[in-house]
Amino acid sequence: MNDQLNYLTEKVAKGLMTRREFVGRAAALGVTAAVANTMLATSAKADTPKRGGMMRIGSSGGESTNTQDPALTASEVPLNNLRAWGETLVEVDPNGELDYRMAESVEASADAKTWSFKIRKGIPFSNGKDMTPDDVMKTMERHSNEDSQSGALGIMKGIANMKVDGDNFVVELDTPNADLPFLMADYHLMIQPGGGMDNPGAGIGTGPYTIEIDEPGVRHAFKRRDDYWDSENRGWADEIEQLVLNDATARTAALQSGQVQIINRVDPKVAALLDRAPNLSVQSASGRGHYVFIMHIDTAPFDNNELRLALKYAIDRQEMVDKILRGYGSIGNDMPINASYPLFDESIPQREHSIEKAAEHYKKSGHDGSPIILRVADGAFPGAVDAAALFQQSAAKAGIPLEIKREPNDGYWSEVWNVQPFCASYWGGRPVQDQMYATAYLSTADWNDTRWKRDDFDALLNSAKAELDQGKRKAIYSQMGQMLRDEGGLILPMFNDFVAGVSNNVGGYVNDPNGPVMNNKSHIACWLKDA
Amino acid sequence: MHPILKLIVQRVALGIMLLFAASILIFGGTMMLPGDVAQQILGQSATPENLANLRESLGLDEPPVSRYFQWLGGILQGDLGTALTNGRDIAESLGGRLKNTLFLAFWAAAISVPLAIFLGLLAVRYKDRIPDKVISAVTLTTISIPEFMIGYVLIYWISIRLGWFSSVAIINDSMSLGAKLNAIAIPVMVLTLVVLAHMMRMTRAAILNVMQSAYIETAELKGMGMLRIIAKHAFPNAIAPIVNVVMINLAYLVVGVVVVEVVFAYPGMGQYLVDHVAKRDVPVVQACGLIFAAVYIGLNLIADIVSILANPRLRHPK
Fold first, then answer.
1. What pLDDT score does A16 carry?
2. CB distance A259–B44 less than 8 Å?
3. For residue A263, what is the domain's CATH number?
4. Residue B136 burial by CB count (10 A; 0-12/13-18/19+): exposed, middle or buried?
5. Do A414 and B41 touch (CB under 8 A)?
6. Which domain CATH number covers A328?
7. A485 and A506 housed in the same domain
8. CATH of the domain spanning B96-279, picked from 1.10.3720.10, 2.30.130.40, 3.40.50.720, 1.10.357.10
9. pLDDT at B263
10. Signal peptide: which range, if any (chain B) (predicted)?
11. What pTM does this model have?
């Protein structure tokens, strides 16, 4: 009984169970309400942060080719590294609000075209020098100038001019953008001394840790800095070690045997089983990431909206969530936005799976019945090949001849995605709607992987950007979402949760919709209870 | 010149030519793969601008042939160059990985080779009786199960249930030998189970073959014990085929264990090579390919020389 009670108190402490539920469950075990409440009080006390110890995390998404250069970071292991040593101007917290890091405040001009970030003073880099607005300026330059190799280049494009004005870093935009501060939360934009122009991979920043050992593809070890500016909120463990464990079974085994305390990307197939293990819990955060099948709407036969609708009705979304995500996710509505985004319109009707409607639209499309080729690879998203097979089966019921063509993982992103007219893919999601739409649905976007090029849509996006009245913005975004839902080339069956495994010895873990493992900050924001 | 010395020189020269040919094949092969290193680094976040900038800074805008000869020029001066993906010195990072690979291969070989030969001898001694059948059945079973499966089963029982050894085999220079051996204990067991059968069966077959000879019968008639006959008379005459199969398995332990490396997150060369192939990091792929080819060629050379030395007729040609 004691074990069970401990388990329940743990659950309350982690916010997985309400107080009322706890008292009820405890009563079922023969514990009076008064005793149950005392137990809760102790468990809350055990949850105050503790300093010290060595935090070990096991992560997939690392290769021996990784670098510490933020510009070239594209996977989880190097991102976890960046979070340990670096910080951005702002971050987005789990509630979707701005969390000010290197900037202490931000102000916009009335037309949302000029943004002024007030930079904090007296924050030392790990090389001992103080961070200045000039460093911020140089960092942004490195990611946006004409030699830039940065993954953030796409989001820096709208910036017309940047300058330093006293303690402020000022950004002037071509067109108004009410969400600009959210763009500055992009993880590539870690503030580096001198912008990291001389040595971008030096790993020197304002974060809570410094790099001790850097063996790409194997492990990365960090030591806490004594002069970290925000030590009241982050940097609890004395040391962090990140082990690169790309194999899913190796990762879960390492967590189960206690060699690591936190792992990312728990395979949904084993998540429910793993959760039963005694000394750990599986944490699942519903996020903005989604798995998609994308059609180029400028290429036959996908230039026919009736055919697109037929395919959208033919896919069985609930089946995908149940079988591919094993319940660790939610159904999609053929628009890249869900309730995790600010200004989401809940009233947009959910598209239901309907064989009749699919068959009806397919007939209307006048398609000649030749096979429609869908290209997939396992690397497109976990379970992509199985999802395509499910899609093929439900489409066949509506008389739509889908043919699956398997592609190698290797080279998928350069040869198939954004090249072939119909394929599987995924999106990680963005902090705000504007950024998601601007990244992949604006006529001029490099990653417009559905070839959605509509002047009216672009105009709506721009008007939403400039609109500071949130009610009106919400209405515009709703209209845009519905346009994509009804006419776009995007079949979006499911939003995937971020599933992580966390040892019971870890305190402070919260679910964050912005990214996996607390938006890749679990190692710096959590503490060890036995430290 | 002594004929054996002459043979070695010939073989080494041939080996170098083979390496050269291998490097051309590897380079050509990586050129044929879709995408280039810049695309692979940027992945989904590639735009035409950052791709072009990255290509230029990595020197990918030069034609492939001139890149190959630049690389070859470097190699001939002993310079392996730097990795395109993260700018690290290849010789340095590769050196560490090679050391780890050899460390794991050494311990796996140190256990599996004597064990396989001993079990082979034992199987001959009790030919067609229970010990022979048990040894054959067990080793043939373990060679037939995929190595990752054996790995997972051992991890579950030995690491998670019993807690004896670590399931993560990440080792580094600051660890003591004992800690390192603890870390690689399970991978060594897996590799041993994987290579045992091949060597054991070959030992058994080679010795059984020799056992048919007249001189074994003579020894038997002299009243020698069976194990002693096998060890003193049969084994030396069966050594050539055994050495050959041992060398093939050693080569496998060095170049073919990437699956085991992945399962145990072992920082060896296999994973290092696979990562760089996936990113089209040609200089690293070339360097790894050369080392792997050199290991194969070198071990085969040793096998040939040992067979010659073990055979008096070849040792003293008329």
1. 58
2. no
3. 3.40.190.10
4. middle
5. no
6. 3.10.105.10
7. no
8. 1.10.3720.10
9. 87
10. none
11. 0.81
A377 in a domain, yes or no? yes
Cβ pair A216:B152 closer than 8 A:
no
Cβ–Cβ of A414/B35 closer than 8 Å?
Answer: yes
Tell if the CB–CB gap between A259 and B167 is shorter than 8 Å. yes
What pLDDT, on a 0 to 100 scale, did the predictor assign at position A107? 93
pLDDT digits (tens, 9 = 90+) for A421-453: 999 999 988 888 988 998 889 998 878 999 999
Q: How far apart (Å, rounded) are the C-alpha atoms in residues B206 and B237? A: 9
Test the A interface: residue of B170, B261, B262 with most A CBs within 10 Å:
B170
- The shortest CB-CB distance from B166 to any of A215, A259, A417 is to A259
Percentage, residues of chain A above pLDDT 90: 65
Q: Which of A67, A151, A446 lies at the smallest CB-CB distance from B48?
A: A446
Print the SS3 string covering A307-324. Answer: HHHHHHHHCCHHHHHHHC
Which residue in B45, B168, B281 is closest to A65 by CB distance?
Answer: B281
Give the nearest partner residue to B263 out of A58, A64, A247, using CB atoms: A247
pLDDT, tens only, B218-253: 888 988 888 888 888 888 888 888 888 889 899 889
Classify residue A332 by burial, with Cβ atoms within 10 Å: 0-12, 13-18, 19+: buried
Do A306 and A388 fall into the same domain?
Answer: yes
- Provide the residue type at A242 as one letter: Q
- Average model confidence (pLDDT) for chain A? 89
Q: Which positions ≥6 away from B172 have C-beta within 8 Å?
A: A213, A215, A219
Nearest residue on chain A to B272, alpha-carbon basis: A64
Boundaries of domain holding A304: 290-496
| pLDDT tens figures, A269-305 | 889 899 998 899 999 998 899 999 999 999 989 999 9
Query: Is the per-residue pLDDT at A100 higher than 60?
Result: yes
Does residue A425 form part of some domain? yes
**Among residues B108, B268, B255, B128, which one has the least CA distance to residue B196?**
B108
| Min Cα–Cα distance to chain A from B31, Å | 13
Q: Name the residue ranges covered by the structural domains of chain B.
A: 96-279
Encoded tokens for A298: 């400028």
Per-residue pLDDT of B14-67, as tens digits, reads 888 988 898 888 888 877 777 777 777 776 666 777 777 777 777 777 788 888
Which of B316, B247, B318 shows the shortest CA–CA distance to B4?
Answer: B316
- The number of domains in chain A is 4
Backbone angles phi, psi at A13, to 5 degrees: -60, -35
> Which residues have a Cβ under 8 Å from the Cβ of A402 and sit 6 or more positions away?
A371, A372, A374, A388, A391, A392, A395, A396
CB B167 to CB A254 under 8 A?
A: yes
Both tokens of residue B162?
């019993």
Q: Do A365 and A295 contact (CB within 8 A), yes or no?
A: no
The CA distance from B175 to the nearest CA of chain A, in Å, is 14
Nearest CA in chain A to B174: A213
Cross-chain residue pair B45–A247, CB shorter than 8 Å: no
Of the candidates A149, A257, A259, the beta carbon closest to that of B50 is on A149
Task: Determine whether the interchain pair A146/B49 forms a contact, defined as Cβ–Cβ distance below 8 Å.
Answer: yes
CB B117 within 8 A of CB B195: no
pLDDT digits (tens, 9 = 90+) for A459-483: 999 899 888 888 999 999 999 999 9
Mark yes or no for CB contact A215/B172 under 8 Å: yes
B31 interaction partners in chain A (CB closer than 8 Å): none
Closest residue on chain A to B279 (Cα): A65
CATH of the domain at A187: 3.90.76.10
* pLDDT at A27 exceeding the cut of 80: no
Which of A65, A244, A246 is nearest residue B86 as measured by Cβ atoms?
A: A65
